[in-house]
Each structure stands twice: as C-alpha cells, then as structure tokens.
Amino acid sequence: MTLLKNLILSIVTLMVLGCNNSSNRTMDTAESLMQEHPKDALALLDSNLTK
Predict the structure, then answer these.
(1) For 30, which of 4, 12, 44, 50 is 20 to 30 Å away at the CA?
(2) What is the pTM of this model?
(3) CA of 32: how far to CAs of 10, 21, 23, 46, in Å?
(4) CA 46 to CA 14: how far, in whole Å?
C-alpha cells in the first residue's frame, strides 16, 4: 500500500513540475501580447491547449 502511495505521489509531482514551467512561459507571453495583439494571444493559448 505504501509503495502505491509513493508511486502515485511521484507521478503527480512530476506532472505538476513538468507542466508548470512551460505553462507559465506561455501565459507570460500571451499576457504581453494581449493588449496590442489580442488575436495572437488567443491563438497562442488555443495552440497550447491542443498539445
């Protein structure tokens, strides 16, 4: 039982850490584009969702 808990915790931790960094960069880029180029910001976010 403990091995299963540790495995699940490890997988969740890796998923959170692996996804978090690139998502933050994408959100920062989209935020900087939002005022001047809202369609480009939306396209960036849409393309990130389909990956």
Answers:
(1) 12
(2) 0.52
(3) 34, 17, 14, 16
(4) 24
